[in-house]
Structure formats: C-alpha cells, structure tokens
Amino acid sequence: MPNIELTTFKHASSFRRIAAVAWDEPRDPSIYGFLEIRCERLQEWIDLKRRETGQKITVTHAVARALAIVLSKHRDVNAIVRWGQLQLRKDVDVFLQVAIPVDGSVGKADLSGACIRQADKKDVGQIAEELRAASLKIRNNEDKDFERTKSQAQMIPGFIFRWVLRFLRFLQFDLNIDTSFLGAPRDPFGSAMVTSLGMMGVRMAWAPFFPMSRAPIIVLVGAVEDQPVAEDGAVVVRKILPLSGTFDHRIIDGFHAATISKEIKLLLENPSMMEFEDERDHMLGVVDESTDMPTLGADLETATAEIAPVELESEEIVQEPPA
C-alpha cells in the first residue's frame, strides 16, 4: 500500500510544469513577523536622551537597545546552530547596518555596519556613540576590516571568493575559531541584526539572512507615520513605528517570536523601562535561564529565581512568509 494515494494531473498549465522543475523542495527556515509600535512616548524619550547625551539618538538605536534587553532575558533565543545542535552565546551583540553613499550613485552605494558588543549592558547613548564613531570610520575609509573586505571583493574572482567566504564561515562558526589572525573580524554580525529604511520613507520590508551570519533575528525599522487607531471607542491619529522581523525557525518558533515581540513592544512604548532595571524586571520578569541547551564558549550559570509569567496585551505578529 503506498504512503499516499495519488493520480497524475494530466492538464497542468505550462507555468505549473515549469514551476515543478524550476524549484527544489522548500528548505528556507525563515519565518516573518510585523509589529506596530505607538511611539509618542518613544519620540519624547528620544528627544530627552538627545538633550541629556548630546548624541543624535534615533528610533533605530532604541530598537537595538530593546532587542538586546529582551535577548539577554531569553537566553535560549541568543543561540546559533552548530554541527546540527543549538548552542547558546555568552554575550548579546547587536549588529547595526550602515549605508555608505558613493558619489551620489545608487549603484555604487555600499553596505557595512558595526557590531555593538554586549549591547544589553550599554545604554542608548552609548549605542548611538559607538555606532556614530564606527560609521565615521567606515565612511572616511579608516575601517581596516571593511577596507580589506572591499579590496578582496574587487580583486578575487567571484567563483573563488565564494569558497573563501564559505571557508571563513566554516572556521568561524563550525570550528568556532577566532579568525582575526587572518584579517577577518571575530563574529562580525553578532546575536541579531538591526537595519533601517525609515529614513528613506519605506514603511514595511523584510530583510533576508546573510549567509555569513549566524544571527537568528533581523529587525527592519520602518518609517514613522500618522495612522488611524481606535482609542476609547473613537478613531484618532497617532504616530506609529512599524517593525518587520525575520526569524530563524531552527532557533525561534512562533511562541518565542510572539513572546519577544510583545516584550520589545512593551519596552518601546514605555521607554523609561529601558533605563530602570527594577521596573523592567517587574514588568518582564527576571532572566529566563530555563534551558538545557549547551552554552557556546561558557557554561550556564545556575538559575536562582523563579520565572515570573508576564501577560502582555498585543496582537499576534508571527505569520508564515507570503506565497
């Protein structure tokens, strides 16, 4: 008896016949989500932080800070897949992308970024300053790692460069070797990536995973816009910040994605919580160490507190990728 009772479809269209042989079976583990943030309080808080720090703080810095806090609380999503096994990272490092205009040409524009190490231990002003300094070095051609990568990409033939990058990825993640001695930065993309198209007026988009990265989360920050919302039974206009997320389903399932998304929403809509740990722990609960995953580079500390369940009001944001 066959596994499935089947009959041949004899009248398939030309497109279906082509599609049947053009694609392989799906192997992409990406899942996608979308979240809308009421950002009146966030904008007021950013204005306050700008005055206090003198830094040009933006919503992207705030999103990076909120994401780092949530990752530090949920250790089991701060992980990579290595040799078919999930392993935890010791630190929370967040990569923020930087666009590099060249001669005003869209085609020549380049893309790089900065990895903020231990971002969960830095405030939004420190994140903004570190990214500003790194961006200045990149744009002034003073970043040695980026200049070396640009030179290699220009000089090495593409079919060879592909294998060079795959070899580096094998050394960095499969063998877990610090490749700084080869001129390649250590773990260049960190635990998660944040990119922004809001300054270009783009409201919604989803970013793909970069093959050289093992970050299981990419958050894309869209443009803040006036949107109608229901408030006390009336329709009012409010400032809305859209966030789009791409998640690696091998590490993050729908429950994980919904949980961390709700907590990011809570932090961004109540941004003072990002400054006061006691208030944050009261609302979000303490660090969740309830995982049996092996740690990458360090042993897990013994859990010392019960995990406080948190009920958050938010829409479900995780959905399957569009067809």
Describe this structure in words.
The chain has 323 residues and is α/β, with parallel strands linked by helices. It has one domain: 2-Layer Sandwich (Chloramphenicol Acetyltransferase), CATH 3.30.559.10. Helices cover 33% and strands 23% of the residues. Strands 1, 4, 5, 6, 7, 8, 9 and 11 form an eight-stranded mixed β-sheet that branches. Helix 3 crosses helix 4 and helix 3 (59-73) crosses helix 7 (254-269). It is globular and about 65 Å long.
What is the gist of this entry?
The chain has 323 residues and is α/β, with parallel strands linked by helices. It has helices at 14-22, 40-53, 59-73, 124-139, 144-155, 158-174, 254-269, 277-284, and strands at 30-38, 79-82, 85-89, 94-102, 105-116, 192-196, 217-221, 225-231, 234-248, 295-296, 318-319.
Radius of gyration: 22 Å
Could you describe the largest sheet, including whether it forms a barrel? Answer: 8 strands, mixed
- How would you describe the shape? globular
Structural class: alpha/beta
Mean pLDDT reading: 83
Level-1 CATH class name: Alpha Beta
Summed up, the helix count is 8
Low-confidence stretches: 292-323
Element order, helices and strands?
HEHHEEEEHHHEEEEHHEE
Tell me the strand percentage band.
Answer: 15-25%
- CATH homologous superfamily name? Chloramphenicol acetyltransferase-like domain
Helix content: 25-40%
CATH fold name: Chloramphenicol Acetyltransferase
Straight-line N-to-C gap? 33 Å
Count structural domains: 1
Strand tally: 11
Specify the CATH architecture. 2-Layer Sandwich
